[in-house]
C-alpha cells in the first residue's frame, strides 16, 4: 500500500490555551514536532502540515523536517477548513489521507501504523482509531471521498462522512486512550506532560 499522506492540522488559534499550543515543550521538542516525528516514524508516505494562526512561529520549527506545508487562509472557520486545505495540497496518485490533529503528540507510530494497516487490509474507505467505543484519531479517508470532503459545509466535520456512509466505516479499536485525547487547555497540557 502506497500513497497514504498524513495531514497534520496545526492552523488553530489556541484560544483556550492562551498561547500557541503547538510550540509548547513536549519531551525534548515541541508538541508539533513530536506529532511530526511520530508520523515520519510511521508507515505514512509523506506529511503535510496545515498552518494558519501563528504560521511563522510554527514553520520556524517544522521547516527542519521533511514535510510539506500548506497555508489555510480560512483557519478561523474551524478544523474542516484545515482538512480541506490539506486535501487540496495532496498530489495525484494519493490513495488516502490520514488526518492527525497537531495537538495529539501522545499517539505514537505504533498506533498510527495500526490504523494504516487496518485500512490497507480492508476494503473500507473510512478507518478510524477508537478507544472504549469512542472514535478518535488518526482517521484515514480514501481519496474517493475527496470531492465530498471539499464540498462539506463549514461547521461540519468529517464525522458527517461516517454518518453518510456507515457501511464503509471500519473502527480500529485500541487499548490506548491517547487516540481520543488532545491538548486544548493548560490543564490538558499539564496532564499529558506528567505522563511523559
What integer is the average pLDDT? 92
Return residue spans where pLDDT drops below 50 for at least 5 consecutive residues: none
Overall form:
globular
Helix content: 25-40%
CATH superfamily: Spore Coat Polysaccharide Biosynthesis Protein SpsA, Chain A
Q: CATH fold name, please?
A: Spore Coat Polysaccharide Biosynthesis Protein SpsA, Chain A
Strand order of the largest sheet: 5-4-1-6-8-7-9
How many strands in all? Answer: 9
The biggest sheet amounts to: 7 strands, mixed
How many independent structural domains?
Answer: 1
- Cα distance spanning the termini: 32 Å
Helix count, DSSP H or I runs of 4 or more residues: 7
* Proportion of residues in extended strands: 15-25%
Write the CATH architecture name. Alpha-Beta Complex
Helix and strand run: EEEHEHEHEHEEHHEH
Topology of this structure?
Layout lengths: L3 E7 L14 E2 L2 E2 H10 L5 E6 L3 H8 L5 E4 L7 H10 L7 E6 L7 H13 L4 E6 L2 E9 L3 H6 L7 H6 L4 E5 L12 H8 L3
Parallel strand pairs: 1-4, 1-6, 4-5, 7-9
Antiparallel strand pairs: 2-3, 6-8, 7-8
List keywords for this structure.
single chain; 196 residues; alpha/beta; Spore Coat Polysaccharide Biosynthesis Protein SpsA, Chain A; seven-stranded mixed beta sheet; two-stranded antiparallel sheet; globular
Amino acid at each position: 500500500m502506497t500513497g497514504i499522506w498524513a495531514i497534520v492540522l496545526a492552523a488553530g488559534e489556541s484560544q483556550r490555551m492562551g498561547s500557541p499550543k503547538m510550540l509548547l515543550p513536549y519531551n525534548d521538542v515541541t508538541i508539533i514536532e513530536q506529532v511530526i516525528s511520530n508520523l515520519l516514524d510511521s508507515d505514512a508516505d509523506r506529511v503535510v502540515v496545515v498552518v494558519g494562526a501563528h504560521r511563522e512561529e510554527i514553520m520556524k520549527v517544522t521547516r527542519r523536517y521533511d514535510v510539506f506545508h500548506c497555508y489555510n487562509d480560512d483557519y478561523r472557520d474551524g478544523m474542516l477548513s484545515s482538512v480541506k486545505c490539506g486535501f487540496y495540497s495532496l498530489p495525484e496518485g494519493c490513495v488516502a489521507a490520514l488526518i492527525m490533529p497537531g495537538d495529539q503528540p501522545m499517539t505514537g507510530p505504533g498506533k498510527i501504523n495500526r490504523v494504516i494497516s487496518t485500512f490497507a487490509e480492508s476494503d473500507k474507505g473510512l478507518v478510524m482509531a477508537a478507544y472504549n467505543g469512542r472514535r478518535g484519531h488518526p482517521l484515514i479517508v480514501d481519496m474517493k471521498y475527496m470531492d465530498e470532503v471539499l464540498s462539506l459545509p463549514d461547521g461540519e466535520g468529517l464525522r458527517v462522512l461516517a454518518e453518510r456512509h456507515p457501511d464503509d466505516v471500519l473502527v480500529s479499536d485500541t487499548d490506548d486512550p491517547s487516540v481520543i485525547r488532545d491538548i486544548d487547555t493548560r490543564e490538558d497540557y499539564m496532564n499529558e506532560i506528567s505522563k511523559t
